[in-house]
Prior knowledge:
Blueprint: H1 2-19, H2 23-40, H3 43-60, H4 62-65, H5 70-89, H6 93-108, H7 115-135, H8 140-147, H9 151-160, H10 174-185
Amino acid sequence: MREEKHIIEILKTTQKALKQNNSSQLQELSNKTIHSASIYQHTDLVLIAILIYSLSKISMKREALKIKNYSLFVEKINSSIEKAIKELRKKDYGNFLKYLKETREKITNITPNLEPYIKEVFKKASINKASKIYEHGISLEQTAKLLGVTQWELVDYIGQKQIADEPYNLSANIKRRAELALKFLK
Length: 186
């Protein structure tokens, strides 16, 4: 039950940020969602994180993409999200997923000429979120399978990032490690 409330909160916040065209809040929300997905190994959260990340990229580049009737697009997306929320409240997980997939289709079909770009956004979003899951200690193979990307795509992306600089992977500095070793040996 707690998890369902958390997902509803994420989706409600997504709707609000999308209405406000707040791409940075959407991106931050996507990162928090993938963090939760890594901890709980919940595949629905991964899908939600990818949807939110894709919406953040579209929101960020909406003027450059020249999306006609952007406000209508936002209404359609928020309508699908609202349907998903209603189904989750009823604990109808099949219809919940159906409406999440409907949301993805609506994102993909913004305009026919943007379809290749949006598909690329989803692919990059999947790889980006896969790297975040990998940073949380989930194996490369499991992460790739979870997000439907190849291990090669994931390794290539991770190789371009400096994961060692991520807060979850930082080790203590040399002085601190020496102090801990001495304390342990006493």
